[in-house]
Write a structure and sequence with these properties.
This protein is mostly helical and 422 residues long. The chain has 24 helices and no strands. This is Pentatricopeptide repeat-containing protein -mitochondrial.
Amino acid sequence: MLALWNSILKHYSLGASPQDSIFLFKFLRSLSNTMSFDSFTYSYLIKACANMKWPGAGNGLHCLSTKAGFGCHVHVQTALVNMYVDCGCLVDAQNVFEKMPKKNLVTWNVLITGFIKWGEIEFARAIFEVMPEKNVISWTGLIDGYTRMNRFDEALFSFRQMAVHEGIKPTEVTLLAIFPSIWNTGCLLFCQVVHAYGEKSGLNSMDIRVMNCLVDAYARCGSIESAFRVFEDIDDMRKNLVSWTSIISGFAMHGMAVEASGFYEKMENKGLKPNEITFLSMLSACSHGGLVEEGLDFYGKMVDFYRISPGIKHYGTLIDMLGRAGRLEEAERIALSIPNEIGNNNAVVWRTLLGACSFHGDVERGERVTRRIVEMEREYGGDYVLMSNIFCGAGRFEDSERVRRLMDEQNALKVRGIVTLV
């Protein structure tokens, strides 16, 4: 009979309403004071508390399970460690872990990934170092932690240590965890390492997400030719929207607007419906390729045909495209039309327009835009510097000096890397 109740408890604990497992457990206890429960019962209930982020109820089950004789049961205690870390109770999790007379690999991995989840990478690393045995899950958790903390070089070092020195074969989950570090360091060598691993395993046997990330990684690391080869190696039946968007985005990064446009057309001919990321890539390609009319056509298709509402990045890229082409009046009109709910007061968008005003020497518009930006972020010195340079370029040296004095009065911060001309 208990097996049936456990099956129902498991269903509830993993379902959309895990609290129902707690209610059922209370009901069962009310039926009979002599009814006993096993390790599966407590593991499912503790999992429900983890899913609901109910540390109070979890602590109650901790007490009940200990009284029932499961204080040393590895599966119940591992479930408690997992529950406490999921709820952010790291001290409680560590206390349970340290009191366990026997730990398995899952217990160690649960604690490590739990600490990583809450940004405690140094504690996670310390636990990792004393693990008696490490598997690919342990290494993947550590690599993912370094990546999440933007410690990309350490993530790459750990990957190399795992694969080369320890001889542990990375899984597809490991590869997905390492890609952000590859992108952010621009490490082409690691792209080639992952690619070689894929070829050895059989490219089309790998998760399509890994292949798509590899296309993206090659493009970000500067080798659009390799990105294209990987894309071509993916079986046509496996290519999805992300595959096509990745290669289109790659062409956009490399200023290959014509190629991006051609692949967009091929994608549509395959019957795939573009999404907002696809259109953002196309707008970026047209912006860097100087294809303004084509970019406006893509924007119109996105809004009118596919009924995709533009986000702040679409507006920013559109303004950048028009600004590069000197069509500042249109760019300003679009900036003013951005709905408040998605960022009409987004300073980055207005700075894009200010940069275009500076490049094309549009003093009057530059003044207007600067006033708008200063209303939003008065403390950023780069805006004052840029406006001062616009005045200087127009021969209005007194106005240029006035803006610089204003910057000093406002204690605005000059950011390194901004080149001043006066």
